[in-house]
Specification:
about 375 residues, mainly beta, lipopolysaccharide transport protein A fold, six-stranded antiparallel β-barrel, cell inner membrane, transmembrane helix, LPS export ABC transporter periplasmic protein LptC
Length: about 375
């Protein structure tokens, strides 16, 4: 047994500093039975070792400390690991893992968990069972029981991949996002995290879905908006805005209302939904269309520009420029170039203002004229 007190250099550009004991493994001369494979023995066993790797220009790529290390050919087996990964001489990830391997020729690191990696730039923490770090390409890849934690959200998935060049992370598989402050959840096939913009973006071949649950502190998460689906969803943390794109569908369970739109913007601070590119609504046999729509915290739906309502009592239709619809009381109010028409009995009215109640099946039009067919 030999005690070393100074650093020594290992091959392939890895420096090994020892602050403990170095045990040399000597293979004995005992006879080996013919026909049986001889397991390879480690050439060197290290305790309390520090490994460093630099690129050809001398820039530090990573540094790892292990309680125990065994060198076998070009692979270094590690136990009880702590370390730091670098990019352009700046630390980007700090890590802890019980097991790992350094592949000297191919120049990448494998870790086995449960492991923990902290991104020192965006305050995220990554947990998983397996991880690979490729310093040449700046790729960090994690698999199995992946959990990405941020002060504002948590993401669970099957696979995680981050790039130091793009500063972008992507989780794939069955991915679930939970916003901690609002008890808000989203599921998708793929979710990307952009730390520079502080934005999450979800995309799915099948619709991504957001499920909102009751919360005493956040009225947005009540059952008024329990389920939303779309092809793409984006959350911007600085502006606290959710954006649903492509085939957006909203199901409001307690009022049995179904809303479709190409795009929906949600203000989490103002508790308001806005559809700027057209909206279609179905509710208990009544359908409505408009160029724009808003859903407010008071459970009031406001439609604007080329409003068309069908399926009113007496099989009536209504056209207007604006429509306000209170879902709790079922009171409606319309304004601007009104045209009301029903078939049985046939009635046509025009005006500038209308008020009514869908539950009571009443509607009053003001500021115009009426044409009524009288059947003797």
């Amino acid at each position: 047994m030999v005690v070393l007190t100074r650093p020594c250099a290992a091959r392939d550009g890895i420096d090994i500093s020892l602050i403990g004991l170095l045990s040399l493994i000597v293979v004995g001369c005992a006879p080996v039975r013919p026909g049986l494979p001889v397991p390879k023995q480690p050439q060197t066993s290290l305790h309390q070792a520090i490994f460093k790797r630099t690129d050809p220009t001398g820039q530090l790529l990573w540094q790892i400390q292990a309680e125990k290390a065994e060198v076998l050919d070009d692979v270094v087996q590690l136990q009880q690991i702590q370390g730091t990964f670098y990019h352009q001489q700046e630390p980007i990830y700090s890590l802890q893992a019980p097991y790992g391997q350094v592949h000297q020729q191919s120049n990448f690191i494998q870790l086995q968990g449960p492991l923990l990696v902290k991104d020192v730039r965006d305050r995220t923490t990554l947990r998983s069972q397996r991880l690979q770090w490729h310093p040449k390409t700046g790729q960090l890849i994690a698999q199995h029981q992946v959990l990405l934690q941020h002060p504002h959200f948590e993401i669970k998935g099957q696979r995680f991949q981050a790039s130091t060049r793009t500063q972008q992370s992507r989780l794939s598989g069955t991915v679930t996002v939970k916003w901690l402050e609002r008890d808000l959840q989203m599921q998708a096939q793929e979710i990307s995290w952009f730390p520079r913009k502080e934005t999450l973006a979800a995309h799915s071949v099948i619709p991504a879905s957001v499920t909102m649950r009751p919360s005493a502190n956040q009225p947005l998460t009540s059952n008024r908006w329990p389920h939303v689906q779309s092809q793409r969803v984006e959350l911007c943390l600085p502006s606290q805005q959710l954006v649903f794109d492509e085939a957006v569908e909203m199901h409001i369970a307690d009022s049995k209302m179904h809303i479709k739109s190409p795009r929906v913007l949600v203000s989490l601070t103002e508790d308001q939904w806005h559809s700027p590119q057209g909206i279609y609504i179905q509710y208990q046999g009544i359908s409505a269309r408009a160029k724009q729509g808003w859903l407010e915290p008071s459970r009031t739906l406001r439609l604007q520009h080329q409003v068309r309502v069908k399926g009113l009592p007496q099989n009536a239709q209504l056209r207007a420029q604006t429509l306000t619809w209170n879902m709790a009381t079922q009171k409606v109010q319309a304004r601007g170039q009104l045209i009301y028409q029903q078939l049985q009995p046939w009635v046509r009215m025009t005006g500038t203002r209308a008020m009514g109640n869908l539950l009571q099946k009443t509607l009053e039009v003001e500021g115009g004229e009426a044409v009524v067919e009288i059947v003797p």
